[in-house]
Amino acid sequence: MVTINSIKRGIVIDHIEAGQGVKIFNYLGLDKADFTVALIKNATSKKHGKKDIIKIENVIDFDLTVLGLIDSNITINIIEEEVIIEKIKPELPKRVEDIIKCKNPRCVTSVERDIVHRFVLVDRKKGQYRCEYCDEIYHFLEV
Ligand SMILES: [Zn+2]
Description:
Layout: E1 9-17, H1 21-27, E2 37-45, E3 49-56, H2 64-70, E4 75-80, E5 83-88, E6 95-97, H3 108-111, E7 118-123, E8 128-131, E9 137-139
Antiparallel strand pairs: 1-3, 1-4, 2-3, 4-5, 6-7, 7-8, 8-9
The structure holds zinc ion.
């Protein structure tokens, strides 16, 4: 594992809950990256004790919605010429379509293949979503 102290141009995902970094790393496909990436686990955080950090020496496209679902407390820093030019805080989206699937075997989405999986945010604090078809409640931060 390589630690990059400064990035010339790329993305630093900071304030990831300790232990969640691997999920984001894998979701972004960084295990297969051919550019420099670093997953730093259990870094000391002034605010929260321990945190994970991901450094990416490249500009990549990613879905903020999904990152918000994995961990809504993260900060995404966009770096250019070794300076942070933008800080993004992902928010839990009010509606989620076709990102996560309902696991209820009796749900219509489990039976019909061509249906769009739709979820509505019911509790922002807890990160809870409700399936629009069967009313199952999901807590995506644990998925
Ligand atoms: Zn459902």
